[in-house]
Amino acid sequence: MDFLTILTLGLALSMDAFAVSLTTGFSKKKMSSLNFILMPAFFGFFQAIMPIAGYAIGLSIRDLISSWDHWVAFGLLAFVGIKMIFESFQPEKESETEAAFNLSSLLLLSIATSIDALAVGLSFSFLKSTILIPALMIGIITFLVCLAGIAVGKRFGHLLGKKSDLIGGIVLIGIGIKILLEHL
Question: Are the CB atoms for 77 and 179 separated by under 8 Å?
Fold first, then answer.
């Protein structure tokens, strides 16, 4: 995969974490420097680890489905994208934001917002693409996007809300279509 595709993928995958960071920034009037860094660090770490885990799972089943792997990659990305679009129309859960700096809640939010990255890692293994550099890029992008999300949330969070999930979902579906068209 080329750099621009990986960059776009990283941005799309970071949208769930961005939305949580944005609402956290919006709802938390006072935030320590540690908390300002902690949430993006957790989200970035899990967004980097989950594609590697998905890739490892995919390696074990790749040979079984190599003739139609591009359809699987498209299906996974489309599924995740549609899920994100659907979630963009759901009401925001205030309890997620309130518990955001509780360590166990932060861990659960980090895993929950990076499940999509697991599916993407699975797709990478089917496409016989490398994973380490893309996973690192996805983690760094997520970290930076979440830092921005908290900062923007403190200033303008009420204006963006769940629209970031809608955008992320559309982008993931677009990447899935691009992969499908490249292999047909």
Answer: yes
Residue 64 tokens, joined = 């079984």
Q: How far is Cα 160 from Cα 172, in angstroms, rounded to an integer?
A: 19
By CB neighbour count within 10 A (0-12 exposed, 13-18 middle, 19+ buried), where does 74 fall? Answer: buried
Model pTM score: 0.72
Residue of 129, 109, 93, 100 lying closest to 9 (CA atoms): 129
| Per-residue pLDDT tens digits of the chain, which is 184 residues long | 789 999 999 999 998 888 878 777 776 667 778 888 999 999 999 999 999 999 999 888 876 766 676 787 788 778 877 887 887 788 765 444 444 567 877 888 888 888 889 888 988 988 888 999 999 999 999 999 999 988 887 787 556 566 766 776 787 688 778 878 877 7
State how far the Cα of 123 lies from the Cα of 75, in Å rounded to an integer. 9
Backbone angles phi, psi at 93, to 5 degrees: -95, 115
- Cβ–Cβ < 8 Å for 81, 169: yes
